[in-house]
Amino acid sequence: MSIVVGILVIVVGIAVSIALHEVGHMAPAKRFGVRVSQYMVGFGPTIWSRTRGETEYGIKAIPLGGYVRMVGMMPAAPDGARRGRGFFAQVVADARDQSVEEIRPGEEHRAFYHLSTPKKLVVMLGGPTMNLLLAVVLTASFMAIGFTQQTTTVASVSECVPTATGAPCDPAAAPAPAVAAGLRAGDRIVSYDGVATGTWRELLDAISGTAGQPVPLVVERDGQQVTLTVTPVDAERAVLDADGVVVRDPDGDVATVSGAFVGFAPTLARQSIPLSQVPSEVGRMFTGTARAVFTFPVRVYEAAAQTFTDTPRSADSVMSVVGVGRAAADVAGLDATVLDRVAIMLSLLASLNMALFVFNLIPLLPLDGGHVVNALYEGAKRTVARVRGLRPLPGPADVARMMPVAYVMFVVLIGATLLLVVADVVDPVQIF
Which residues form the PDZ domain (predicted)? Predict the structure, then answer.
């Protein structure tokens, strides 16, 4: 049941993200007087719809996107233009005809192409901006909730230095440095070798490389700071898996790792992340997503190659909506607290909205970035004409000429999506 709930949560989260993206387009378009005839979440057959005012609101069967139909997205063909022949010429002509037919008599001024360049930019950037805002809000939410993490408070102290085989302590075993130093369960380690240790990771980094050296260790005990001296030893320890079972290599020997050993285990506690780190976390998500989008063709090829060969699917492989759903099922099935699973779900949705933000800024139709580029081109032409004193100013950009690009992009995106769906079914990404 928890897995079903997890999938439903991520599906609803994706639907809400798409719906708010389209609201980001629709709200400013209506504010600027453009007639919006349809607002749809999803593609394919319509499951439900209602008409309110002049707009039909609905939900479609395939939750892979959505759209807002704004009247007059493309101007009519320039005066004197001849209707070309060939497949793509027909695509351009059909797009112009459909756009013009949507305009009601007497409402020519409400066509999208009559908007000024700044207003067009506001409308087309409204959708991606909504996803960026959602990414920020969701990031702040999961950081405020926090995750169960290892802390610098001591849960237990080892009695002896472990052996490479993981055998229990015996009377002849050397005492662990923590015991010799007087470290106790409940002590919170404040600093190690003069370095403040606010997190478990910082403490491990400070301990590394200090084997054989007497090191000052400051702990907080019963509300007071106590300074101890600990001398870590260079110990070879057995590697344990997530269940605490000794890991063995292919020959059956115990896998070991050596390093500075003090001899204590940390407590586990929920730790929220300061909201001051939200900008840096959002920036990290943006750069990682932008890198993935920039290399998208290569990443899709790698996903396909890993799926249909013996190469294991990498944990950072690109995924389809199916892959995100499977990741949500994995999260729901984790042996973790409800709050931990909620935080991970929120982080997944934050990453998804960042992906929608970046992906839609690709400067090619039918994506929002393609319309942004056309609006900027139109504005640049008019600015140059205005500076040169030319009259009349150039008309709206002939967006229809880019329809062949949009057609090819649509086919490529559908192909990539289907390929990733197959990959996510046959060889899903193992995040955990």
Answer: 174-234
Instruction: Specify whether 22 is catalytic.
Output: yes
Determine the distance from the C-alpha atom of residue 211 to the mean position of all C-alpha atoms in its chain, rounded to a whole number. Answer: 40
- Please write the tens of the pLDDT for every residue from 214-243: 999 999 999 899 999 999 988 776 666 655
Class in CATH terms, 148-271: mainly beta
pLDDT score, position 191: 93
Burial of 24 (0-12, 13-18, 19+ CB in 10 A): buried
CA 318 to chain CA centroid, Å, is: 11
Cα–Cα distance for residue pair 405/310, rounded to 1 Å: 36
Q: Give the whole-angstrom CA distance, residue 192 versus residue 216.
A: 6
Catalytic residue among 22, 102, 281, 302: 22
Side-chain-side CA neighbours of 208 within 13 Å: the count stands at 7
Q: How far apart are the first and last CA of the chain?
A: 19
Q: Is the pTM of this model over 0.85?
A: no
Low-confidence ranges of the chain (pLDDT < 50): none
